[in-house]
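Sanity check

After download, print the first record. It should look like this:
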Amino acid sequence: MKVPLKWLEDFVTVEVPVAELAERLTFAGLEVEDVTEVGADWDREKVLVGEVTGVRRHPDADKLTLVTVVFGGDPLEMVTGAPNITVGMSGVKVPVALVGAKLRDGKGGDGMITLKPAKIRGVRSEGMVCSERELGLSEEHGGIMILPDDAPVGTPLRDYLGDTVVAMDLTPNLSYCLSLAGVAREVHALGAGRLKERPPEFVEEGSPVDDLVAVSIDDAGRCP
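Expected structure tokens:
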């Protein structure tokens, strides 16, 4: 069971450091196998939330495009071959890395590379829009990672998307912790946090049910 702490915080206010939290969970039988810091390698000044403001064709390469990105500073134009960044696109939020940022090698492997300015088919590129593999989030490299529409432009990606993930090896009798709510109750029971009230919410939509189904009682004696 992998527990992202930002998500867990929707259910419980964690009041102890992550190392102590992992120790308490382990001593309670919820063995913590690993604690991973997602985004720990992302430079706060060089890996940011950006917004695509324009995409045009590369003048000398059919499979490349030139994407203009704003991220709080002067707009930059970058070269990409990602198939999900197409001519005319605008308003999409993406992770952007500036010169000097350290990223995973997009060609595979666990090695890190330092981003340098480059001239690609005659066009200078001062940064890059990133895939999940280049950020170390997954092995997905089929296109640029698209962020939610409400991602705040210019925010360090580490602050927006970074997280601490606690991985637990649960035994069958602890299946109630196969949910964030279950883990939150355990954290509360161990004195490591305070549960948050989460009243149930029901969304009513569509036609009234009375318009869709009707029930009539033919024999009220047998079916009171």
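If your output differs, re-run the checksum step. Summary of this record's structure: The radius of gyration is 25 Å.
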